[in-house]
Amino acid sequence: MKKILFTGFEPFGGDQTNPSWEAVCMLPAQIGEIHIAKRHMPVEYDGVASLLEQAIHEEHPDAVICVGQAGNRSVITPELVAINAKDAPVPDNAGVSYTGDPIRADGPAAYFATIPVRDIVADMKKAGVPASLSYSAGAYVCNCIMYHLLDLLNLRYPQIKGGFIHVPYSCEQVCAHPSSAPSLPLELIAKGLAAAAATVGNSLCTE
Question: Domain residues for 144?
Fold first, then answer.
């Protein structure tokens, strides 16, 4: 049986919840023939790499999908590329901030996701979940964990597929934000992640 490891983040930016982790928690332990493992991650530039590597070492997954919140987006957005940069106007949860620093000084400028992101978008839409492909994961901790993931897989685990999915605010969360902030029901976000798991699972089983 194949295994997909999902990660989600803790709350940040003053929020009390983070739909990335809440939606991951809603996933069943098995989707079709795919076993689902889950890990909780801190919103810290310098804290995610070792925890991610530990999770991969312990879980032995066939694919890893990291999930994060993008509160300005109205649909679920699988990410195509991670860039080698840490650059955001706000600090992470450890109070650390960066301005254009590389994630790995001698690393490549970017990595492309190795999960089938275009198929994921198509299958999410077929499942009735609003989704679109994103060409920028930003330069905050979400991009950082995606870059760390793909760098680690490239260097040490080339047989494992990896990628990142951004999700909007949940409807339950948005009451703490301006009324114009886009959101999706948490159940719909989880449905989208389940569709992604099925798509990745199918790709693993046909290789």
Answer: 2-205
Check 35, 44, 142, 144 and give the catalytic one. 142
Write the CATH number for 137.
3.40.630.20
Catalytic residue status for 79: yes
pLDDT digits (tens, 9 = 90+) for 142-152: 999 999 999 99
The Cα 126–Cα 133 span in angstroms is 15
Number of domains in the chain: 1
**Residues 6+ positions from 8 with CB-CB distance below 8 Å:** 18, 20, 21, 22, 23, 24, 25, 38, 39, 40, 41, 67, 68
Global model pTM greater than 0.90? yes
pLDDT in tens, 95-150: 999 999 999 999 999 999 999 999 999 999 999 999 999 999 999 999 999 999 99
Residue 24 contacts residue 8 (beta carbons within 8 Å): yes
Does residue 166 carry a catalytic annotation? yes
Catalytic residue among 22, 79, 144, 148: 79
